[in-house]
């Protein structure tokens, strides 16, 4: 396989993934992420792109707003250091890709594409994570989302049990996710190791929970179960419902070709 063929196939796969993430971003008011398609800089199959580099979005609330469930120390470190690092890593990967296109030398393409996948996925998931939490969160979902959860998991409590088990059981570092699968038109609970491994291609993330140790260790130490239990107190179900309605109303990938 040539470098050009691999690059085209990689770009096609990434656009499929970002289509789902773009629906999430648009529903949560993150237009910069919604537009994140292609590599952000340089050409894409002959079409020049002028998108700005990725940037760290501000928290939509104060660092201490989610206390006592997630304390201010964690939020400051998590957002200002860890999330910022993923933004910088994604932009560095874009710079390397632009340099490769300029020079015509693609000997590091595999490593740089891996860096882009890891860092950009981390940036996207964290951007969603901040927005689906709120100091006024908690309780149970209602409306269309609640109906869909009952349809696909038997009950809202059944969904919560499955999600908590998946998030708690992530091997090493990663995420628990509720996603909308456009192919089947249904909800799924999935895991992601790191930010990008085990991902369901093209699915739209609705509810995401970071279970890397940096997300909870300062407060909960090694008790991930207690952290996952506390998470339900800050979930902004209205935000999750908005993403669900946007995803459910979108055409399936095969119908948009």
From TrEMBL:
The record ties this protein, via Pfam families, to:
Sod_Fe_C, Sod_Fe_N
Q: Which Gene3D superfamilies match?
A: Fe,Mn superoxide dismutase (SOD) domain, Iron/manganese superoxide dismutase, C-terminal domain
Task: List, separated by semicolons, the cofactors it needs.
Answer: Mn(2+)
MF terms (GO), sorted A to Z: metal ion binding; superoxide dismutase activity
Q: Which residues form the Manganese/iron superoxide dismutase N-terminal domain?
A: 54-134
Q: Which reaction is recorded as catalysed by this protein? A: 2 superoxide + 2 H(+) = H2O2 + O2
Q: Which UniProt keywords apply?
A: Manganese, Metal-binding, Oxidoreductase
Q: What is its EC number?
A: 1.15.1.1
**Compositionally biased region (Basic and acidic residues):** 38-51
Chain ranges of the Manganese/iron superoxide dismutase C-terminal domain: 142-241
Which top class of enzyme applies to this chain?
oxidoreductase
Which parts of the sequence are annotated with region: Disordered? 34-58
Assigned protein family: Belongs to the iron/manganese superoxide dismutase family.
Q: What does this gene product do?
A: Destroys radicals which are normally produced within the cells and which are toxic to biological systems.
Name of the protein in its database record: Superoxide dismutase
Q: Tell me the organism's taxonomic lineage.
A: Archaea, Methanobacteriati, Methanobacteriota, Stenosarchaea group, Halobacteria
């Amino acid at each position: 396989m040539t470098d050009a063929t691999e690059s085209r196939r990689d770009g096609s796969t990434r656009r499929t993934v970002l289509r789902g993430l773009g629906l999430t971003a648009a529903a949560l008011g993150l237009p910069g992420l919604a537009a994140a398609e292609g590599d952000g800089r340089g050409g894409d199959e002959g079409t020049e792109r002028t998108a700005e580099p990725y940037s760290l979005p501000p928290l939509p609330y104060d660092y201490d707003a989610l206390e006592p469930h997630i304390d201010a120390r964690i939020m400051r470190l998590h957002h200002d250091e860890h999330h910022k690092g993923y933004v910088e890593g994604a932009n560095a990967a874009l710079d390397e890709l632009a340099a490769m296109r300029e020079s015509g030398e693609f000997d590091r393409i595999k490593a740089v594409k891996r860096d882009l996948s890891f860092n950009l996925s981390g940036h996207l998931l964290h951007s969603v994570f901040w927005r689906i939490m709120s100091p006024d969160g908690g309780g149970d979902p209602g409306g269309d989302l609640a109906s869909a959860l009952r349809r696909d998991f038997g009950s809202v409590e059944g969904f919560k049990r499955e999600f908590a088990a998946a998030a708690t059981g992530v091997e090493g570092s990663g995420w628990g996710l509720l996603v909308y699968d456009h192919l089947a038109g249904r909800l799924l609970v999935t895991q992601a190791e790191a930010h990008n491994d085990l991902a369901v291609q093209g699915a739209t993330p609705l509810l995401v929970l970071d279970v890397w140790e940096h997300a909870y260790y300062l407060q909960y130490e090694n008790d991930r179960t207690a952290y996952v239990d506390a998470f339900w107190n800050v979930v902004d179900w209205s935000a999750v419902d908005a993403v669900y309605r946007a995803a459910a109303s979108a055409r399936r990938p095969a119908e948009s070709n």
